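Lab manual, section 2.4: Encoding a predicted structure.

Procedure: take the sequence of the chain (88 residues), apply the prediction step described in section 2.3, and record the output as structure tokens. A sample record is shown.
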Amino acid sequence: SQAEYYLRRAKEELDKEIEGFTAQAQRDENSLKYKSAIISYCSIARLLYTVPDDPRHKNAVTQIKDLESKLGLEPGETDCLKKQRASQ
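Recorded output:
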């Protein structure tokens, strides 16, 4: 039961971190601070790299690709996506 408690707490803390990064990314994107938004979305992608089917991970990757396009970058040019591909 103690392990279940700590697992639940860890998941709650992870969810809080992801919510914070999501809110920051959305604020940055709305302020046209695309590079800062990419950093926040990369943080989400890194936190959830072991669960690529998680909708939050998929959304972060999609948002990164959209922001790359807005910045005129090549698809997949963002470092966090390169690092993820290398580790998978």
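Check your result against the sample. The radius of gyration is 14 Å.
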